[in-house]
Structures are given as C-alpha cells and as structure tokens.
Design goal:
single chain; alpha/beta; eight-stranded mixed beta sheet; 7 helices; PEP-util_enz_mobile_dom; PEP_synth
Length: about 240
C-alpha cells in the first residue's frame, strides 16, 4: 500500500496527463479516422496510461482485472479498434467505480484512493461551452455540449440506474446523469444521448462518436423536468433539447 501511495504521489501529474492524452487521442481518432497516424498515436497513448494504471489493478475485483489484460494484449487477441477503445474505457470505469463504492460505503480505503478518484473524476466534469437557447421557454428543456451532430425526435427513456436499462426501446433518446459501459447492451436501440454530466472526453461522448449517435453532454440538472416516454427533440446541431 505504501509503495502504491508513493508511486501515485510521485506520478500523479503524469497519470493525469497521460489519461487526458489517451482520451484526447481517442476523440481525435474518432473524428479523423482517415488520418494514417491517428490510430497509431491513439493506441500508443492508451497503452502508455494502461501501464501506469496497472499498479492499481490488484485493488479491483479479479474478474474485472481482465480489461487490463485485454488492452495490453489487444494485438494478440485481434481486437478491433472499436473494441480496444471500449475495453480501455471499461477498464478506467471499473477502477473509478471501485473507488466510488469504497468511499460511499465507508469501506477501508487505500491511502492513495482519494487522489486517484480525483484524477478519474475529471472526465465526468462539465467542460466546454454549452449553447444558450433564447426561444420559447415552454419548449426548451436544456442545452449542453454537442459531441455528435444530428437532430432526432423520439420518445425518451430516463436511465437513473441499472434497472432502468430495460426501459430502452428501439429508436429512443436516452437521458441520463452519465452513461456507463452497461449501456452497450442496448446501443443499437439508441437514437440519441443526453447527459447531465461530462465533456468531450466522457464515456457518453466516446460511445456516441463510435456509433455515430447524436449526443449532447454536460447539460447540468434537467432530468427532473422529464416524464418517461415523452417526446423530445434532440438538436445536436445546435446543442439544445426541446419538448
């Protein structure tokens, strides 16, 4: 434990920078797939931060440690680029979730846990400038940062916990505090994504770019304004949501 704490205290800035670099490279690749070196640089940055994060691998459940191995051995496993991206994001998510669970349940924490959680929390913070909408307030729901353009009109599925995933139906817009890798089970049913948290490098943004789903993130609190299955207009060209 002391060894890990010392390593984190020494390397915390490097971990922050490498993690940001990896997610920035993922976003760049997703938006510039035709560039020859975009994939190579993204893969390199993913592997670099995975090597740094590997020191924390023993502190997550053993059956979830496999995501570290999948990322590190992606060539031997013949992983597609999409699977590499999603496996890496799942790996970071599992580490983050473990730290959150320990903190919320007041379980015994490693001395490095709060600092590591702070590093991982950055991806969930609202970043960028949201679009302000000045039309009829009765029609306006929220605005945020558009990460994949497009306009969708559909019924909304409000996802606040795992149980709500069963409410995702074909062609729906999902509204959530944030997305998690669990959403992958219904990805082909989703026509639009709106989240309260996150920026251009969050999980929802990665998911939306990878599957070309219109998406607005970092909208702030808005879900309490919605009713399950009501019709929304997600205008990701302008970063706004309307009723």
């Amino acid at each position: 434990m002391n060894t890990v704490r010392k390593l984190l205290q020494t390397n915390s800035q490097e971990i922050k920078e490498k993690l940001d670099q990896a997610y920035t490279s993922i976003a760049f690749f997703q938006n510039n797939r035709a560039l020859e070196d975009a994939k190579a640089k993204m893969t390199q940055h993913i592997l670099e931060v995975t090597i740094l994060l590997d020191q924390f691998k023993p502190y997550i459940p053993e059956y979830k440690q496999r995501y570290f191995d999948i990322v590190m051995n992606h060539k031997q496993l013949g992983l597609s680029t999409r699977d590499l991206i999603m496996s890496f994001d799942q790996m970071v998510f599992e580490l983050h979730t473990r730290l959150e669970k320990n903190l919320s349940n007041h379980q015994e924490l490693q001395a490095w846990s709060p600092l590591m959680r702070e590093i991982l929390d950055v991806r969930r913070q609202i970043t960028g400038n949201s679009v302000k909408h000045e039309s009829d307030a009765s029609q306006f729901v929220t605005s945020g940062l558009s990460v994949v353009s497009g306009c969708v009109k559909a019924h909304v599925a409000i996802i606040e916990d795992m149980e709500d995933l069963k409410n995702i139906h074909s062609g729906c817009i999902i509204a959530s505090r944030m997305t998690t890798p669990d959403f992958m089970i219904a990805i082909h049913k989703i026509s639009g994504i709106i989240t309260e948290q996150g920026g251009r490098l969050c999980h929802a943004a990665i998911l939306a770019r990878e599957y070309n789903i219109p998406c607005i993130v970092g909208c702030g609190t808005f879900i309490n304004q919605l009713t399950e299955n009501e019709v929304l207009i997600l205008d990701a060209d302008n970063g706004i949501v309307l009723k």
